[in-house]
Amino acid sequence: MSDITWEAPFCGEGNSCFRLGTDADGNAYIAVNGQEERYLTDTADALRTLITDIKAGKADHLL
What we know:
Elements: E1 5-6, E2 10-11, E3 17-22, E4 27-32, E5 40-43, H1 44-55
Antiparallel strand pairs: 1-3, 2-3, 3-4, 4-5
């Protein structure tokens, strides 16, 4: 497994902080800040699509 390079934490309201990361193999990672050992991984394109869809309001019904 490649080393993950984590971005600085992104924090919304309250304590909802998460981090995005990538590795040399082109994989993308997302984790709760402070729990980086428990991450979700997929391709960078899939993570990009997820973030774009969230910004477009496609996940608002989950909130």
